[in-house]
């Protein structure tokens, strides 16, 4: 089997990967820069199609 080093690596990956994703994508500046423009564009597209 992998041994204790593999288990430590897996534990670190399971704990820190989701935390890193939340820190990166949960940043309000990232949200304003990438999500809001797409949302506005989709709203305009929906309004045009109605």
List keywords for this structure.
membrane, mitochondrion, 50 residues, Pet100, unfolded protein binding, 88% helix, single chain, mainly alpha, 2 helices, transmembrane helix
Provide an overview of this structure:
- With 50 residues, the protein is mainly α.
- The chain has helices at 4-25, 28-49.
- The longest helix is centred in the N-terminal third of the chain and has 22 residues, at 4-25.
- The chain has one domain.
- Helix content is 88%, strand content 0%.
- One of its GO terms (cellular component) is mitochondrial inner membrane.
- GO terms for molecular function: unfolded protein binding.
- Belongs to the PET100 family.
Give, in order, the helices and strands.
Answer: HH
Number of strands: 0
Our estimate of the beta-strand percent is under 5%
Which structural class do you get from the secondary structure elements? Answer: mainly alpha
Q: What coarse outline follows from CA principal-axis ratios? A: elongated
